[in-house]
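Final report, Chapter 2: Outcomes

The project's central promise was a pipeline that accepts a single protein chain and returns its three-dimensional structure in a standardized token representation, suitable for archiving and comparison. That pipeline is now operational. To close this chapter, we reproduce one record exactly as it appears in the project archive, with the input sequence first and the structure output second.
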Amino acid sequence: MKRYNLKSRMMTIIAVLVTVITILTGCAGSGTLKTDMINNAQSETVQTESVLSEEVAAQTEEEKALSEAEEIQSVEVNTNDEVDTQTENSAADDSKEVVAVANTTTDGIINAESIFTKRDLTQTADLSEAVYYTVNDGEDIYIDKEGVYVFAGSAKEVTIYVEAASDAKVQLVFDGADITNSDFPCVYVKSGDKVFITTSADSALTVTGSFTADDSVNTDAVIFSRSDITLNGTATLSISSTDNGIAGKDDVKVTGGTYEITAKSKAIEANDSICISDGTFIINAGTDGLHAENEDDDSLGYIYICGGTFTINAGDDAIHAVSVVQIDDGTFTIKAAEGIEGTYLQINGGAIDIYATDDGFNAAKKSGSYYPTIEINDGEITVSMASGDTDGIDSNGNIIVNGGTINVTGSSTFDCDGNAEYNGGTIIVNGQQVNSIPTQMMGGMGQGGMNQGGQMGGMGQDGMMGGMNQGGMMGGNGGRRR
């Protein structure tokens, strides 16, 4: 606005001077005087024009600089807006990434510190370069390269094959996929370093008939893998099988998601290990719920759990490992013939509720790498036994109780063939708190003989059928060790 005021001022002055000159030119008088006045007026006009031109030029330069500054400021604002937008987008992307935490321990019989990687624990997939598939009836899908692959749609007779390089990591994302096959796995991992199976929207995988083999490979599970697999996600994966639900010939890990598994045989099985940090599991299994067994190396075939919620109904064992079962945390509701079985059972935490028709906990000599032991360091444990020849906590070796609360109801609550150590914690037997482990020898059918403070005959202490509570009595069939 200042520039226009200067121009107006200049034009007004020039107009006045021109008028003066005209008047002077028309006036009478001395020619010299008239000439001098005219010259002076013209000189002043030129000087005025020069001054005004300089002012206008200065103002023009000032406005030009101001305009450039405004443009620079505008560019800076736009640039900042772009940076802020990028930051917000980045933050949004980060907010979409869901990473779980594994409450692992380092002082258990299994050092679990490095079992789960960050990618194992990441419940969402990076879809920036993902390949998308809609499943169609009778059209198998073959994956031979590392990457992220997303599946949606409903179809029958479809198998997703993974046959990638030995160093390839492949991620399969089920985003509302429903696959039903009659006799072959829905997912068949032939090769690859590791395969992640991530559920981003509720999906279902089903095999309705008898499985057929792949040449010499007995492909007997809905998800069948010859490589390491990790299951995670934020939704529910339902699996129904006429044999096994999930079978891994190496390691099987689960870090999140919900799994509804109905299987005529085992729900989840692995050769080397089953490791679970979190997830919700609703399992109905004809034989075992979780099963780990390596026929070539009996130091493997272990199960490690540090979180999750488990509801398991099993025809045989709810949780079975040839070598070690270590539970650091988790919530378990179990109904099975045997609740938890392995060679070495270590319970460091969690809430475990078992109803069993054989043994609640059973440490048997299944591995030469460990001595049969049940070690309880913490946790809330409730065991209810069916009637008959049953044991609540049964070890073919040692029982060690260092902490936790153990509440056992049954005719035979503890059975130990080795040493029984009670170092801490709370033990409740048939509703009454005790200050020792009330063990019986060899499944309640001891070799008889004298027991100081013992009981006569019958079923002994925990299920005595008419024995006599008098010290020093002969111990018939039910001699007990206190």
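Archive annotation: The chain has three helices and 32 strands.
This record, like all others produced under the grant, will remain available to the consortium after the project formally closes.
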